[in-house]
Amino acid sequence: MVAITLPDGSVRRFDGPVTGTDIAESISKSLAKKAIAMRVDGALTDLFEPVARDATVEIVTRDDPQALELVRHDAAHLLAQAVQELYPGTQVTIGPVIEDGFYYDFARDEPFSSDDLERIETRMAEIVDEDRPTRKEVWDREEAIRHFKKIGETYKAEIIADLPEGEEIKIYWHGDWHDLCRGPHLPSTKHIGKAFKLMKVAGAYWRGDHRNPMLQRIYGTAWLSEKDLKAHLQRLDEAEKRDHRRLGRELGLFHFQPEAQGSVFWHPKGYMIWRVLEAYIRRRQDEDGYVEVKTPQLLDSVFWEKSGHWSKFRENMFVVPDEIPSTEEGKPVLSGEAGLMALKPMNCPAHVQIFKQGVKSYRDLPIRMAEFGCCHRNEAHGGLHGLLRVRQMTQDDAHIFCREDQITDETKRFLALFARVYDDMGLSDIRYKLATRPENRAGEDAVWDRAEKALADALTASGLDFDYAEGEGAFYGPKLEFHLTDAIGRTWQAGTFQLDYVLPERLDASYVDETGAKRRPVMLHRAVLGTFERFIGLLIEHYAGRLPLWLAPVQVVVATITSEADDYAKEAAALLAAKGLRVETDLRNEKINYKVREHSHAKVPAIAVVGAREADERKVSLRRLGAERQEVLDLDEAAARLGEEATPPDLRARKA
RNA sequence: GCCGCAGUAGCUCAGUGGUAGAGCGCACCCUUGGUAAGGGUGAGGUCGGGAGUUCAAUCCUCCCCUGCGGCACCA
């Protein structure tokens, strides 16, 4: 007898082992039809798995929160199945579920083309229609390895050989195709449905290690319904429209060119955003007790050896010979014998030098030392990505030198600053994580215990919920991660906060404590915006280019309807400019429709239209970006209103 | 750096083994028009760079560069 307890608490008894299908059928025909898996005492299991002991069983249908993951997992198998049927000799490796879908990595000499993707997709749909049933077998480890080697699946054989001892070797069959898998799977291919689409092919290293062969990864997306699939594809379209590289070009903000790979040419409008942000964050830092410094770009390699960067970070540094290049015709430009300098990849070691000038007392601490430091990092070519991954970047960087007992307070203070700034930026959806000690680390565990606790205390005292990111800290100390969610639900990391016990030691920074003894300060590396480059990229995508008035490079365009209003337009523009607004005039010989369209495309937040009527009455017809109507206002009132709205949030708060 | 794809006018893109086209943009002319494209004319390209095949290459082949999508990297 097997007693099965259902979620409603009722108990059903069966003569012997029962499968999920049996149980579902005993409840209702329709449930049996909808069933795709079950939970036995809470563990997700195949529907066709016999239950031989008393247990609580929950039948899982497509309405279950975990159904989508099951469907995506099966879709990955479906993909592998279709590929092996169409391209015999292709080896399968792994095929996990990822955000929005799945992928499968294949070993095949010939590359897959986009035409192949279409063929594969068609074959996948056919296999769904064929409704191939799933079944599971448990094999002996050695037998499984022999089998997969024999059929030429060497990667699978390797995976099996590496499975932990004692783990069941489960083989899943979908019709006559089989694969090693931990499961669980849907009862048949029909249940996958057809709300899937193959998205792209890409290279990926076997086991993620660049020393291993490169496999071909096919990415797919899969959903529970066609409607969900369509919505997802629409989201992708939306994201593409927000791409900061595209908007940067369309709005004339910046450009890149091959001669300066990974470095930005900021155009006047793009740099205006930078200037506004920099002025804003500088004010925020000033009021929060920071001092600002400027340190050298180019420092001798000896210095980087001391800081530890030469051994740990050199492959990411730009190294420059300290010599005057030869101008002699035919001679090599550089002798190759000169001493080496390097462009700074970080500001921290230079800040320690300023700290070390003179003797510091415990009374001087904390010192919050800020720099809008321009750093260079020699990122791999393949990793560069618009403004988000560059080789020359400027951070709103600062280092807080403090005593250990000040860590919690300084962290709280930073968290408050961080929240203020992101709220002002319209980015208030932030998730906090505390990244703890990694396996490879410097320092004693007792110090790590204190450091992690100090950060956790600060988060808690600030009333913030947070998760731990175990083992994700830097080798020199734990850190806080700030995960922002943007307007279309994507997450970003920009700011950072890291505790460092190592660098003050390496560079011999010290202060004198109450007893007259020399002590090491703790260093907090922190950036609120992160880099201006990345942060501006983030803002552009978050706002889809429609920046709030205070950040918009051009805030108002005064556009004329007829040339009779030119003089008045200039007068109006001058008045708006006097209110501190960034204003342009459009006096061109074009129709007002054309002008409105063009400035709307340029995402100018406000268009002040003036014709003969407005000129007579000293008014403007104000049209806001995205609005379908306009409002006729007295010029002075319009200037006052726009001036107020364009005031950076911190200054507005100060006035109030 | 690795795998794949791509590179034609400022932008978006078409096209062909016989040295190139559209729309938008730009310039000029006409038009002074009331809230998302008024009309006309014109300028603009070493078809990413180099080599090869060919009578002839933007097109075919090879190498390089750059971009894009991933991977790896990311103090």
UniProtKB/TrEMBL annotation:
Pfam families reported for this sequence: HGTP_anticodon, TGS, tRNA-synt_2b, tRNA_SAD
Q: Which family does it belong to?
A: Belongs to the class-II aminoacyl-tRNA synthetase family.
Entry's Gene Ontology BP terms: threonyl-tRNA aminoacylation
**What region holds the Aminoacyl-transfer RNA synthetases class-II family profile domain?**
243-548
Tell where it localizes: Cytoplasm
Q: How is the cofactor bound?
A: Binds 1 zinc ion per subunit.
Q: Which residues form the TGS domain?
A: 1-61
Q: Could you read off the lineage of the organism from its UniProt record? A: Bacteria, Pseudomonadati, Pseudomonadota, Alphaproteobacteria, Parvularculales
Q: Which organism is it from?
A: Amphiplicatus metriothermophilus
- One GO CC annotation: cytoplasm
Residues given in the record as Zn(2+) binding sites: C348, H399, H525
Task: Enumerate the GO terms in the molecular function aspect.
Answer: ATP binding; metal ion binding; threonine-tRNA ligase activity; tRNA binding
- Signal sequence bounds: none
Q: What is this protein called?
A: Threonine--tRNA ligase
UniProt catalytic activity: tRNA(Thr) + L-threonine + ATP = L-threonyl-tRNA(Thr) + AMP + diphosphate + H(+)
What's the subunit arrangement here? Homodimer.
Q: What is its EC number?
A: 6.1.1.3
Q: What cofactors does this protein use?
A: Zn(2+)
Keywords from the named record: Aminoacyl-tRNA synthetase, ATP-binding, Cytoplasm, Ligase, Metal-binding, Nucleotide-binding, Protein biosynthesis, RNA-binding, tRNA-binding, Zinc
Alphabetical list of InterPro entries matching this protein: aa-tRNA-synt_IIb, aa-tRNA-synth_II, aa-tRNA-synth_II/BPL/LPL, Anticodon-bd, Anticodon-bd_dom_sf, Beta-grasp_dom_sf, TGS, TGS-like
